[in-house]
Amino acid sequence: MMHGGGGGQVHKDRRDWYNLKSMLPFLWEFRGRALFALACLVLSKIANVGVPIVLKEIVDHFQRVGTDPVALAAATPLALLGAYGVLKLGSSLFNELRDVVFAKVRYRAMRRLSTRVLEHLHRLSLRFHLDRKTGAVSRDLERGTRSVSQILNYMAFSILPIVVEFGLVAFVLLRDYAPVFALAMFGSVAVYALVTFLITEWRMDFRHYMNRLDSEANTQAFDSLINYETVKYFGNERMELERYDGTLADWEQWAVKSQTSMSLLNFGQGAVIALGVTLVMYLAIRGVSNGEISIGDLVLLNAFLLQLFIPLGFLGIVYRQIKYSLADMDLIFKLLERKPEITDRPRAQPLHVDAGSIRFEQVVFGYQPERRILHGLDIDVPAGSKVAVVGHSGAGKSTLARLIYRFYDVDAGRITIDGQDIRDVTQDSLRAAVGIVPQDTVLFNDTIRYNIAYGRPGAGDAEIGRAAAMAHIREFIESLPDGWNTRVGERGLKLSGGEKQRVAIARAILKDPRILIFDEATSSLDSRTEQAIQETLAEVAARHTTLVIAHRLSTVVDADRILVMAAGSVVEQGTHAQLLAGDGLYREMWELQRKEREHQTPADSEPQLA
């Protein structure tokens, strides 16, 4: 945030110009329309400036004729009256034509930028998305894309019209009148602009503070609603409201300062306009008294003043809004400048999956450099086999899935699929070859059909139904009042944990990739459903290379090989029988879980949509 100072201002100005130049590619698609709209603008202003000139001729005509009624009736200037009407009509016509032609330019630019920002957000790394605040990003995206439309709107409908009209008026004044009139009129304009810019620059910090606090309050509101159940569990509604209201109290303080300073600005602008109008009219009246100009000239000068100062009265508002819009736009272009952490290498080729074997070779990785998660990890998942990875929480199990998907790159070593380093292949082809049932299933706020079909968007109803049946959720779906069209709520909150997991399993089955990863895939299921799902997973896994990440050991007893992880390394491996026969960590975990099963029976959450 800028707090003043010459260097900061220069940098800010450079950013503003850079952002304006960055906007040009979004206009290029409709450059012909933009030029035509500009031509309409010029024609509209020529007509607008022509109106006072014709009015002057009409007044001068009647002044020459005098007050004799017969002479007045005989000398009615029909041609001038016709020209006056045509110019008024032309000004309105070209104005509206400009608006109609430019609308598509403005809204297409807004659409293109919005799409590009969302595309870029999807390309940014998982690390960025874990750190981001959804509410703040949402508000910044909304304000930033809207700012493009606003700037184009101000440029086409406020700034350029004023510049063109000023140029035309200056031409007429310098051609037909003493230089003092142009000096007085445009001197007033210069003072007005200076007052506006200086006070607006001073006020900009207020807007920056307001934007930051607005985004912060929005984030707090989002977080409290997303974590609605947690808020209720701990009875912290009052704390959430106080936190939200405290941020809004700070926002209110800066908003009041902003409004107060705006009133000061408005008064300053009004004072400059009043002095300027008084000065120009004094010069015009003196000119008429001295016989230097006619009454028609006085009417023309008065009309020019009105035409100039009426739009000029909005210049302060327009300048402020442009500055605010540039500040909002800066958020978006800075986001677009953010480099994705994970990118395809220049000559990356599509992944070719024949057998589907996976190898971790001396893999070292940490989410932060000072905190390693994996230490020289070696894992071999042969093609077509089912390998399970177990261990206590924090052992690094779920990190394996994130690395296979290349949400992060390894710090040392490499991961290969069928001998191909996954850093050398395209991300799209890699992720198309791998399917996952994640530990924490988050669904889209759409229908159950949409969420299952997300695994393969082109799939037909029969395929979707078969995947749901294999995941033992079809019967539940068809028992709902809205069936397949039942909406699951934000993040799937209207479904129980077990139902969400079965939707995720159906989605993975529908995708039918060569490699499958089950990350605690049955952790939210009751014992009876888990047993049925295990049979399904065994059937699905028989046709795939399967990596099962599990905490509950009863789900991996049929694995071809079980790897036991502790502190980022494999400390034991073998079949269930071999590990149970030993006296290591696996047997210790098995005994502990056996005692837990004897004392409690897991139950699936009650469906909320039934």
Beta-strand content estimate: 5-15%
The CATH C-level name of the largest domain is Mainly Alpha
The name of the CATH topology of the largest domain is ABC transporter transmembrane region fold
Q: What is the H/E order?
A: HHHHHHHHHHHEEEHEEHEHHHHEHEEEHH
Structural class: alpha/beta
| Number of structural domains | 2
Number of strands: 10
| Helical fraction | 55-70%
Poorly predicted spans: 1-7, 601-610
Name the CATH superfamily assignment of the largest domain. Answer: ABC transporter type 1, transmembrane domain
**What is the CATH architecture assignment of the largest domain?**
Up-down Bundle
Radius of gyration: 36 Å
Q: What distance separates the N and C termini?
A: 51 Å
Tell me the strand order in the biggest sheet: 6-7-8-3-9-10
Please count the helical segments: 20
Mean pLDDT over the residues = 81
The main β sheet shows up as: 6 strands, mixed
Task: Note the overall shape.
Answer: elongated
Description:
By secondary structure, the chain is of the alpha/beta class. It has 2 domains: 26-337, ABC transporter type 1, transmembrane domain (ABC transporter transmembrane region fold); 358-440 and 515-599, 3-Layer(aba) Sandwich (Rossmann fold). It has 20 helices and 10 strands. The protein has helices at 6-23, 31-65, 69-74, 78-123, 126-131, 134-176, 179-226, 228-233, 237-289, 295-312, 315-337, 397-404, 427-432, 448-453, 461-470, 474-479, 497-511, 527-541, 576-581, 585-599, and strands spanning 358-365, 374-381, 386-390, 412-417, 420-421, 434-437, 515-519, 545-550, 561-566, 569-574. Strands 6-7-8-3-9-10 form a 6-stranded mixed β-sheet, sandwiched between helices. Strands 2-1-4-5 form a 4-stranded antiparallel β-sheet, with no helix packed on it. Strand 1 and strand 2 (374-381) form a beta hairpin. Helix 6 (134-176) packs antiparallel against helix 10 (295-312). The longest helix is centred in the middle third of the chain and has 53 residues, at 237-289. The model is unreliable at 1-7 and 601-610 (pLDDT under 50).
